[in-house]
Amino acid sequence: MPVSPADLLVSLLLLVGSGFALVGSIGLARLPDFMTRLHGPTKATTLGVGAIVIADMVHTSVTTGRLSLQELAISLFLFITAPVSAHVLAKAALASQARRAAGRSSD
Amino acid sequence: MKLRTGLLPQPVMTLLITFLWVVIVSRFTLGSLVMGALVGLAVPLLVRAFWVDRPVMRRPLLALGLLARVLGDIVVANIEVARLVLGPTARLRPTWLDLPLELESPYVATILCSIVSLTPGTVSVDIDMAGRRARIHALNAPDPEAAIATIKRRYEAPLKEIFRC
Amino acid sequence: MPPSFLPLIVLLPFLAMPLLLLADRLGRRTVALVAGAAMLGGLGLLAALAAPVLAGEALVLWRPWLSDWGLDLSFRLDGLGLLFTLLIDGIGALIVLYAYYYMGEDDRLTRFLMTLLAFAGGMLGVVLAENLLLMLLFWEVTSLTSFLLIAYKWQYHDSRIAARMALAVTGGGGLALLAGLLMLGHIAGSFELSVILDRGDLIRQHRLYEPMLVLVLLGAFTKSAQVPFHFWLPNAMAAPTPVSAYLHSATMVKAGVFLLARLYPALANTELWFLLVTGTGAVTLLLGAYLALLKHDFKGLLAYSTISHLGLITMLFGLDTPMSAVAAVFHIINHAVFKASLFMVAGVIDKQCGSRDMRRINGLARYMPVTAVLGIVAAGAMAGVPFLNGFLSKEMFFQETIAYPGFTGYGTFLLPAIATLAGILSVAYSARFVHDVFFNGEPVDLPKTPGPPPRFMRLPMEVLVAIVVIVGVAPQVSVGWLLKAAAGAVLLGDLPPIKLAVWHGFNLPLVMSIVALGGGLFYYWSRDRVFTLHERYALDFSSPVAFERAYNGAAASARRALAVLDRRQLAQYLGLFLGLGVAGGAYAWGSAPASSAGAPLAGPLPLTPVDPVSAFAFVLLAIGVGGATWFVRQRLLAIIFMSVAGLVVSMAFIRFAAPDLALTQLSVELATIMLMLLALRFLPQTGPAERSRNGRFAGALLAAGAGLGAAAVTFAMLTRPFATISGYHIANAKPLGGGTNVVNVILVDFRGFDTLGEIAVLAMAALGVHAMLHGVRLRAFVANAEADADRYPIMLRMLMQPMLPLALAVATYIFLRGHNLPGGGFIAGLIAAIAYVLQYMAGGFAFASARVRLDFVALIGAGIVIAALTGVASMLFGFPFLKSAYTYLPAPPLDDIGLASSLVFDSGIFLVVVGTILLVLTELGRIEVKDATADGGSSEGLPRPATAVQG
Amino acid sequence: MLTGFVLPLALGLVGLAMGLNLFRLLKGPALEDRILALDTLTINAIALVMLAGIALGTKAYFEAALILAMMGFVGTVALAKYRLGGDIIE
Amino acid sequence: MELLLALGVGLLTGCGVWLVLASRTFAVILGLTLIGYAVNLLIFFGGRIGAKAPPLALPGATGLADPLPQALVLTAIVIGFGMVAYFVALALRGVGDSGSDAVDLPAAAPDREEGP
Amino acid sequence: MTHLPILPFLIPFAAAGILLLLTGKGPAVTRGVSLLAAGLGLAASLALHLAVSSGEVLVYRLGNWPAPFGIVFVADRLAGLMVLLLFALALPALLAASRGTDIRGRHFHALFQFQLAGIAGAFLTGDLFNLFVCFEILLIASYALLVHAGGLERTRAGLAYVALNLVGSSLFLVGLGLLYGTMGTLNLADLAFELPHVAPDDVPLVRVALMLVSLVFLLKAAVLPMAFWLPHTYAAATAPVAALFAIMTKVGVIALLRLAAVALPESPAGALLLQPWLPVLALLTIALGTAAALAARRLAVVAASLVLVSSGTLLFAVADGREAATAAILYYLPHTTLVTAGLFLLAGAIGAARGELGDRLARGPAIPGARRLGLAFAVLALAVSGMPPLSGFLGKLMLMQGAGSGPWQVAWWAVLLVSGLATALVLARTASLLFWEPREPARGPVAAGATVSPALLLLVLASPALTLAAPAVAGYAGAAAGQLHARIPYMVAVMGSGPDIARERRP
Ligand code: NA
Ligand code: NA
User: Fold this and answer.
1) Same domain, B153 and B80
2) CATH number, domain at B133?
3) Using a CB-CB distance cutoff of 8 angstroms, which residues of chain D are in contact with residue E54?
4) Residues B73 and B130 reside in one and the same domain
5) Is the peptide bond before F389 cis (omega within 30 degrees of 0)?
6) pLDDT: which is higher, C471 or B86
7) Does B132 reside within a domain?
8) Contact D79 C637 (CB under 8 A)
9) Domain region containing B93
10) How many whole angstroms separate alpha carbon C244 and alpha carbon C223?
């Protein structure tokens, strides 16, 4: 079976990407409290998806014979937003912890 | 300078949008470039009013260097996080870090905190511009002082340089 | 062909009504004169037409109107009609004169006479209609005007109720009559009397004859106050006396017996006819006469007497011999004359004494001698005293009961016995009227001292009493011609020889008369005993109180029934609808014709194997849906689970090759979630009690049924192939629509009109929200952040700045490429709007709205107008609305963006979407919070939910 | 094509990741945990869409992935802001 | 697969129906949303599954999905959003008017003596 | 080509957009624009009416796409009648609203115009999915108009109404989805051509689709068991809005009529779909409406209950399915619509004149201008209860002759007649309470000149006018019914000589 360098690269990126996505989700699933759980998705999943996006980019460029960069936009977007998501979620968690401590809660 | 308040309020953004446009349409022609430039010129004008508190980038090349460093750190950081996540959780030492900020612009501080969130086992939780400090949660930081020092050295200093603030 | 002015007789009273209004300014006298002239004018017209009619001809004027539905404007003047026209217009004229004096100054004579004229017109219409449906129309007019006339003194409780009672009975009868006449017309094949009267045999043999007869008779009997429908008539005496004299003696109540006469050739001569008509007539005759004596109110006495006499006439029609019909017609005339005069006398007494109670009114012969004489003579006619008109028809009645051939053996005595008994009773109540009112000592405790009435008020009575006497003395000369013409019309010319004479020799009827006279006087003499017995045992079903109670009871029952049926619960409404949906679907499937019976649920297509990703997605969906349902009371949680379900749905759209749908679903779902979050804060966490156990069980059952039904039809559809028109759209999207994204071309071109409607819906949703939330202040049920600084985290605020232009650039891309690739105005609009909403979230309302500076309503309006104008533009070029056009720009410098008119259309969509999302979300976001002081940043003062739900 | 073998594997890994997100979503315990789980689920869904695009050899789903990224982010911010203050706008 | 999809539609419908039969606005809104999903999927499936490509009429493309149901669903989604938005605002208005988020009609006025 | 068929939709639609741009310009401007648009709409619909009265079926291809691929508007006699009725009702309703209720909330006129556009579109469209869209337009406008001016009663009535109709729309979509998923088309005429050729195994599924669509029409028409919402909703609306709503139930009726007359005949999919059960529900609806009128405590509720009665009446005739029945309801329908609308306006006028007591059926203060209002009441009451000599009586005459046959005849007549009598008694009692009972002084603010407004006068005169013009109107109704039941002219006008178009087999 012939394996082109591009094919190899794509496969590698796919494996790395999905692996990191899984790692992020494992972190989310198994770490002990919210603040630690926050780390996995923020970094690993973002990177994982980023890798898959690049894989797609390479794959599309190779198969269509035309440079395809549009997938970069998704990565760009994810990298810009992930810290903010983590930020507001952490704030929300702290606020609701404070509320719980004060004996008030709400849905 | 006149351009900033006139037809070109955000030259960086204009460039970014033009680039984004060409990337998204994935059609590397003059037409696409012109179209992207048109959009890149029009959109910042449209949203000019939302543009508050935006410092000017003084050292674009340095910025590119920082970008490369951050991307590298992200990869490294993720391997580190993967090790922590997959390893025994009991060994984790989650800690709160108080990062004193030297940056004056909240915008630049935000960039710093974003970088912090994307790299080694840390997430920015709060920025207090009045108190000039950022609150950061570290997944595993046996030595908080060292972690803070690393952040300041690797990211804050270049940012200060880039934006001169 | 009769003169075309025949309908004018009917129209005249109606035409006079507006004249009365004009005359009102000139005073009462003018009003009365105009009204009287209308009546007399009718008589004049009648005179002009009388000659051929008296010769036995029927004048018919046919004018088609709603011929398809059997209603034509045709009129008929024959002997019967002539007789009744004479009564209606003749007595009507006298009544107008009488009313002029009777009605007080403050009694609004104009209004009264207008209603009276309307009634007279209706009555004339009944008797002169050739078309049965036209007759029915006028019939109901008399019911309605009679309602108004009875309610004339509406200040009085009794008047109001009596009027409604009369309406209930006669109106109801009218409806039965309507049904009956429709059947009759159907049977006879025409609604024209000329045809119907000729087809008696055909009608009597038809299988629908019996129900039809019953319905027609119901109409006749209710109108003519036959037992058991009689009770409205005595109560109708609440009307002013001219009304009683006119409607309730001479005219309206005669409409029922008129109908019997009118349809006699078509309906009579069957056993059922005899049984129903004679039977009802006999019972009415006796009961009316019996009750008449017991009334202390002399108008009540006269009313029951009228009922009794109507029974007599009815009974005569039932006897089904030619001569009995003649007698019936004769009694119609006689009764009208003497009863009208009696009512007028009663009115005079009422007015002069201020009371109608015979226990207080006594000895009036001394106070108003002339009136007394008139009253006594008329009452004599009522009792059947010789030389007065009543005697003659009563003798004929007696004769007919004897001559009736239908009974044998002892049965032969039945009818004469009834007749004699009725005679006795009528003598008794007539005696009471005469004795108790005009004699019997001095008046007791009357509000007024009685005195004679004005001279001309007596005139109508004098005229009528004169007729009583003249007919009584010289019947053949005075009314022979009229009777012959009228009876001839009833019997279709098949008249027996009529010989009207005062003296027929000493025969059985005379004996019966003598027995009646003597027995009646004896009965009256021993009346006190009867009164006592009656008061002890009789039940009164007919009082106004009873009617009102019945009506209110019906209304209360209706309310109770509605309260049971309509629980005022949304769940009930939805449950019934969905239940019908499930049941209807099952019925539709199950009731398919035999050719499809046993069609399997699964169609012929082979099933596609399930791939792991889809199976996983199904699990995800189940968890999302199940979680949202299970955690519905933990609302934020429910929203989170719902988002999972929404995510799966959009993934499904991607899986099955619908990127446009996925885009839209994702954006709309986000907008929906923001909407819910905005609302959640103001929705109380505790609420009304949940549904009952039974309700929940029914709900579960319904949910299961609906779910299974939806699954079943989806499965049935997915497993069946079909043929679709959409190949056309795929084939022509590019060549004719100028775009490769077929979905987008359908949206903005093939079915652009749908899209136009759709943005209208969006626009209105926004307008509705805008209108509805105006000025609403609500309590916030969810705590605010601890500190204001935390409400707009710096990172969020800062990062939103580059996000906005980037998102707008993406929106521009999606918009411009949408015609060829997934995207378009909708999605672009959603993206742009959400990008702006993000600014609101990050920077706060004040920050963002100060910078957006857009009038969202105007934005929506502009979008609508642009979209509509795109369509109108094509009309200017002679194409239909929304015809598209497109061209490609030369490649450089602007890429190959197709400039389709649909792009302009799409930009309208874009504007509406942006305007709508922003208007709705900001309106929800800016709702004023009540208890602002408690809310001001500090969390302690916040209202606490009654039961907190742990998240 | 190596990619042809790797793709199902990658799909499986991402699927497994989503399953773990689902676990966190159901487990909680705090609402923030569930919001985070939803956010991660969405991001993994982007991966899924990209993988599907590779598998089907089409770029038609690029826009969907992009919108997924944008909308997922805004949704997370909205939910978090609601937790933060109850008022996501003002 | 067809059965799975049908069950998905059924599940959404069933839970949606259960929720709209509740007595409070939030549940009804949620139920309406779920029913909306079910309906959109059902219309969408009217074009059948198994298409190889999205309905983009690009040169050489074959096996395109049926575009017509997709267009219909798009319209339905957008209209549904408008309706739900309106309903949410109406629910809030109801809370403003009565302080309660009940969906039922207010109780009927008590029977009153109204005179004859 | 003529643009006439689109104008009854386009004029109010464009007016709505313009009104949005004019937001904040003050009531004089918005009223002027709105009234002008309604007047233009009336003129256009009159022209359309005249154009179709010859019997020609005008087909308007939106976007110039041929049917069944694009959307068509089809104007036949029936559509011409309904659109004319719509604007004949809209003008008085608008006049009434312009006396002040329009400024008690925002965007009244834009919403009103959209509502007109939606209703006109529903009458004219020849495409079933477009019918759904038109339904949604008219519904959401009605939601907003219903709660116009606020208040708990309106809000809650609105919640129930909106939720019910949202579920109704969902069911409609399910029906349309199934219909498309089996027939592959959305065009009514195309459907009519194709339905007879459905494969036997697909017939049950098609029947389910048609049933669901019919049930949604029945929901709009408020037949039992989906009837309870109507009295609450209509009685809660402001009088001018309720007056306009009088035509909304008819949208459902006409849609069902069209579906039943054009698409269902001659097909196993349409056989016995409505016939065995709809007559029962229709009769029960008349009974319910009558009982509700009897139970009502407000005049507006009486009027709303009578809307139920007319719905039941119309639906029975629709279920009957014969041409004569259709001819009868096409005379009865304009009558009942205009008269019940008049009753709503009257209830509003009386309510305004009695202060706090409103239009409640209780002894109350003297009504200023009672005489004229009483006269108006008398005319409307006569008309609505089917008493001679007004159009109600003529309508009843036609309905009794035209509809119901065999075993239904007795029940039909009985229900119709008893309901008419009960209505008359209820209205007599109402008149008694409102105009005749002993008086008290009024409490609360009272409208100064409570009198017969021009709007009310127009609606009061409707019944006499329909009576005088009965031969013309009934003749038109008969012709419209004939054209509708002939089916083929409609189908051919839309689809050309036949439906031999290329269809793609899927999957
Ligand atoms: Na006496
Ligand atoms: Na599009």
Assistant:
1) yes
2) 3.30.70
3) 58, 60
4) yes
5) yes
6) C471
7) yes
8) no
9) 60-163
10) 14
